[in-house]
Amino acid sequence: MIDKKNTVKQIFDGISHRYDLLNHILSLGIDYRWRKKALKLTALNKNSILLDVACGTGDFAIDAYRIGVKNIYGADFSHNMLKLFNKKCDWIIGKNVQMVAEQIPFKPNSFTNITVAFGVRNFYDIQKGFESFFEVLKPSGKLTILEFRLPSNPAVRFIYKFYFKNILPLIGGIISGDKSAYQYLPNSVEEFDEKINIPNLLKIAGFHKIESHSLSLGIVQVVIAVK
Hints:
single chain, alpha/beta, seven-stranded mixed beta sheet
């Protein structure tokens, strides 16, 4: 458990300087649409109090701010990611906190919404993370998860895995200078897809009204759950 936590931190600290650029290049720019779709499904508004977990450099928080959310807290275990978030988002009303999802340093019933974009598979204890989310959400608060998955269609799955295992590590390695970090990504997605059922873990944590949405031929999922 501890090894995964520290390994993930080192990976993202190391690639933080090229993280945004590579996200946009490697997703062919579709990551913008994924985030906007997830936020639309969540129905955030100006009264929302948002905790963006595994916030990275703040792209999800920025999109939330653009649709009217003002009270935003960013949380990530990578210090370098948070530094870049702070540079990009000096308007933030809340604050950015270095933390892991499994140990959230906020009082119970603090947030109306929690968002996690492409971060759940990096948790060292996913069940504990979901239980932590449940505790700090207000009654009827929403958790929104945006995460990769392996497509069910065999042809799409083959192309997707070829891209993830061959092209992505090559491009990511050249631009970031760390090929191993971009080998971790496809490996983590495949392992996550085989072992983790997000809706089931959310039910165990106490959430209800769980809905799942498939995006871009099934390569990305949005899961929304209510406390």
